[in-house]
Amino acid sequence: MAQLSVENVTLSFGGINALNGVDVVVEPGELVSIIGPNGAGKTSLLNCISGFYHPTHGRITFEGHDLTHASPHTITGYGVARAFQNIELFGGVSVLENLMLARHTYLKYSIGAASVFYGSARRVEVENRRVVEDVIDFMELEPYRKALVGNLPYGVRKRVEVARALSLEPKLLLLDEPMAGMTLEEKEDMVRFILDILAERGTTVILIEHDLGVVMDISDRVYVLDFGMVIATGKPEDVAENPAVIEAYVGGAG
Ligand SMILES: Nc1ncnc2c1ncn2[C@@H]1O[C@H](COP(=O)(O)OP(=O)(O)OP(=O)(O)O)[C@@H](O)[C@H]1O
């Protein structure tokens, strides 16, 4: 059974369909990329999967859970985490604190529990710290762990944003243009991290990325969106030769 299933999803804003009858299936452990010209609906699709938007029609399920009308908080609890295109970090606190805050915000833990069940809350806190330190190590962020995020270079902040999502220990990681605005060297590092996330953590990844060279290199399968519709899907080499895809990119000048 598919891990994630997007069935016939339409998302309308007024008279405009940002998504129109979209079907996407993702198997556990896959790297699936979503590509398409500007305004094709890629971010809208991630917004539907992560609960920021709710489809006008259709259904989304993840490991048997119905995500269609679920909140972002509930969906994170099911094991779906997202790294945002526009970085969603707190600039005034450290890398370590940002990751700890993500766990406190999204995973089940409360100050009330801390005062009533001190022992159990402390165990949760020790576990939170262990997971976060492991992610810092994995994303090679040790040199920055105490640095204020707002003072870090852009490329490092993008890496912290992925680390923030990973600190939620997702089964499915949604990456919205994690390499946008990066130098070539930073992009190569990010590609290596994504491949390690798949191989070493066994996390399924959905990637939105404009750099088609990267997409074709690392994806297991690709979905191509244009005007809110899936116009092609398959292995990277098949999609790259699809006339409709070439037309969408050439026609869209991009
Ligand atoms: N909140 C919203 N209100 C109205 N229209 C929206 C909203 N969000 C997205 N849209 C519209 O939906 C369409 C798809 O936008 P979306 O951002 O999903 O595309 P995209 O493929 O991610 O584009 P890009 O590559 O430029 O990020 C666009 O026409 C956009 O203007």
UniProtKB/TrEMBL annotation:
Question: Which InterPro entries did the record assign?
Answer: AAA+_ATPase, ABC_AA/LPS_Transport, ABC_transporter-like_ATP-bd, BCA_ABC_TP_C, P-loop_NTPase
Q: Which GO terms describe its cellular component?
A: plasma membrane
Instruction: Keywords in alphabetical order, please.
Output: ATP-binding, Nucleotide-binding, Transport
Q: Tell me which residues make up the ABC transporter domain.
A: 4-252
Bilayer-spanning residue ranges: none
Superkingdom of the source?
Answer: Bacteria
Q: Which GO terms describe its molecular function?
A: ATP binding; ATP hydrolysis activity
Q: Which Pfam families match?
A: ABC_tran, BCA_ABC_TP_C
Gene3D superfamilies the record matches? P-loop containing nucleotide triphosphate hydrolases (3.40.50.300)
SUPFAM superfamilies the UniProt entry points to = P-loop containing nucleoside triphosphate hydrolases (SSF52540)
Q: What is this protein called?
A: Amino acid/amide ABC transporter ATP-binding protein 1, HAAT family
Please report the organism this UniProt entry assigns to the protein.
Answer: Oceanithermus profundus (strain DSM 14977 / NBRC 100410 / VKM B-2274 / 506)
